[in-house]
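hi! just following up on the protien thing from before. the input was this:
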Amino acid sequence: MPEDRHGGRSRGVQQQPRTERQGEVEVEADGADLRVRPIAGDALDEQDGWLVVPATGVPLTDHNVRELRDADQR
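and the predicted 3d structure came back as:
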């Protein structure tokens, strides 16, 4: 496995955990790096007099979190 620029071991894209998330993303090129981020909304809702950030996208379940944690520990 190749070492990353910080001296640690890096994983290739094919070795990253696969997720079933969908949604729009922002892709930014920074030299030889690509940064992929979900597009954040800027809308606010009001509930009972409180401003809240509305839920968007695919819900994250306990199973999703466990799957990501297990994949990172391999």
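Strands lie at 25-30, 33-38, 45-47, 50-52.
The CA atoms of residues 41 and 58 lie 14 Å apart.
cheers
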